Amino acid sequence: MAKRKAPAADADVIVVGPGPAGLALAIALAQEGLRTTLVGEVRTARDGRTVALLDASIRLLDAIGAWHGLQMQAAPMAHMRLVDATDNLFRPPPVTFNAGEIGLDAFGYNIENATLVAGLAALADNTRGLARVAASATAFTAGADFAEVSLDDGRILRAPLVVAADGRNSRMRADAGIDIREWSYPQTALTAILAHSRDHRDTSTEFHTRSGPFTLVPLPGLRSSLVWVCSPEQAETLAARDDEGFALAVERQARSMLGRMRVEGGRGRVPMSGLSVARFTADRIAVAGEAAHVFPPIGAQGLNLGMRDVANLRDAVVDARTRGLDIGSPEALGAYERGRRLDVRLRTTGVDALNRTLLAHFLPADLLRGAGLIALDLIGPLRRFVMREGLAPHARLPRLMSRAGAADPLL
């Protein structure tokens, strides 16, 4: 009796989840000649959310050909100002970071999330070797030669490697048996886009309050995006106000820094929480983006960390193929596992520590945070080191994020 022939793979890589990280990864892999399938329906709801893309993320988008079409719809963040508004006994002066101090025109750019996704989706549609499947993935199974992804339309797709970029509630990650740790904070983040009467001068301002950071980030024109972290009770009260009342509350909280304000577009409300994974890979699968880590919206780390996932995983897959390895094997994925573990752990710890010190109402914590801000204001080398580390880890950046042929100011 003839031996039954195994079914062929449908792609080299299946990426599940068409958010910014999933889209960018699928495009990057297809551009390297890997047959790539992106699974999921693109959603571009305008809900007042923006993303602050730091310099290394901009380089990645530029390298895959996405940034040229997005730049005019984004605003540069040339300056970042930290203001202690905790009303503690030891209040340091505001600290301003200038991108020019580390050789950059801007720390990054702020753009509406829906605009970013739409731009990446349009590029994906025109990328050779990249297939789009609008169905939802319902199950993941790892096999000896390839993994299978079941779809809600009854189809089954096969590839040597699957990437779970399907968000914090990732079905692919759960089916792969990757354990997670989740936590929450007694806070809610309110998001909105506001027009204002004064120029933001390409400056992002973050007020540290007792309930969490209150941040205004520049958008093109006389507009800024808001992330206001506060108690659930305060968030409930603020969310119940009409647009005029909400804008007035924002104006007062911002000390009228940007003049009169007006809500422009949708408003959002997000409970503050976090998530981390026990490992970034399993049999024939890697996790990336919010399937791998979830951050509260503090310090612009969430999507930027996801973009580093993209760049690191792209390097690991390309290098494995060059060496003739099975790209879904533990040996091939080992570089990605090792490369992401320390970076994500350090960022998670840093953001969590900052947020908890604001909530502590503990004098030694206030003194330590205040002394740190004063040191950043007065000590130039320390300030520049913190700026570089805030943009990227103190390590060699993956290739799509590096400045080819020049000394990298981030290193």
The CATH architecture classification is: 3-Layer(bba) Sandwich
Rounded mean pLDDT is 85
CATH superfamily: FAD/NAD(P)-binding domain
| Total count of domains | 1
Cofactor: FAD
GO molecular function, one term: oxidoreductase activity, acting on paired donors, with incorporation or reduction of molecular oxygen
Family: Belongs to the UbiH/COQ6 family.
Enzyme class: oxidoreductase
Describe the structure.
This protein is of the alpha+beta class and about 400 residues long. It has a single domain, classed as FAD/NAD(P)-binding domain (3-Layer(bba) Sandwich). The protein has eleven helices and 20 strands. The protein has helices at about 20-30, 55-65, 65-70, 115-125, 170-175, 230-240, 245-255, 300-320, 330-360, 365-380, 380-390; strands spanning about 15, 35-40, 50-55, 75, 80-85, 95-100, 110, 130-135, 135-140, 145-150, 155-160, 160-165, 180-195, 205-210, 210-220, 225-230, 260-275, 280, 285, 295. The strands form four sheets. Strands 6-5-14-15-16-13-17-20 form an eight-stranded mixed sheet, with helices on both faces. The protein has a six-stranded mixed sheet with strand order 8-2-1-12-19-18. It has a three-stranded antiparallel sheet with strand order 3-7-4. Pathway: Cofactor biosynthesis; ubiquinone biosynthesis. InterPro entries: FAD-bd, FAD/NAD-bd_sf, UbiH/COQ6, UbiH/COQ6_monooxygenase. Belongs to the UbiH/COQ6 family. Keywords: FAD, Flavoprotein, Monooxygenase, Oxidoreductase.
